[in-house]
Amino acid sequence: MILLKTLGGVLFLLFFLVIGFVQLNKVDDIPVERLKTRWTSNESIFVTIESLSLHVMDEGPKDVTAPPIVLIHGTGASLHTWNGWVDALKQERRVIRFDLPGFGLTGPEPENNYTIERYTDYVIALLDKLKVERAVLAGNSLGGYIAWATAIRYPDKVDSLVLIDASGYPYEAESVPLAFKLSQNKLAKTLLKNFLPKFIIRKSIENVYGSPDLVTDQLVNRYYELSLREGNRAAIKERFVQTKPGPLIAKLADLQIPTLILWGKKDKLIPMKFALRFNEDISNSQLVIFDELGHVPHEEAPLKTVAPVLSFIE
After folding, report:
1. Which CATH class is domain 32-313?
2. Residues of the chain with pLDDT > 90: what percent?
3. Which of 45, 163, 209, 262 is the most exposed place for a label (fewest CB within 10 A)?
4. Count of CB atoms within 10 A of residue 40's CB?
């Protein structure tokens, strides 16, 4: 009896310690106007599509005849993930990148619609706003899924594809970032509302890097602050619910446009077998593997990974 009382007391204490920890690490949303002062640059513009204002950077020469390159980031990221690539690409090409609905400074989709079809519609609407007839679409993870889905739905608008650790097949991760797990767990979403200690963001980024020691405080702060943009935390939960593999997968074999597939061999979120599957399903494709890199190779080693892209677009 004494043992049971002692055990009950310990559990009671642990419960309150956990509740206290959660309360201490609750963080309110940050208004977008405050974040703009830190995360926009001279190249930033805001393009209104329907009632949503997309944060866009449009760089490089506008007078070249070659199709512009559109860079599409993945879940939890922002257009800043492409900084290293843009420095190299904009010397020769027009380069367009933007914060997807639900992420970065763009914020939540007005109708709470995060289906893959809706994302592709935003890509095309942005190209139309910027008067771009055809483009090279390059995307990482979710951005890769959006890129190839756009090519299937709007083939006349896509010149070629660059898929970097792209998603779209049924999910079979070897290791999922902690932030993703919490976003998808129903009980956690209820109990841990507004709970977001910075160490969760750090662990999640380290999980997608081949070399976790490359994750800096500056990088963590960027991901952390932009995840707190008002509405983004609720949006990412819906993104996981709505953006699922679908019938578009069966049409991958219909793609005939040139496709470059880049993959980090140490990717634990979308393992290497999916790189091989994309390469097999897309007939006009070539595959480049980076042995020491993870799920975001373009961010982890931009100069190394942009080199095959420069050759491909030439």
Report:
1. alpha beta
2. 76
3. 45
4. 14
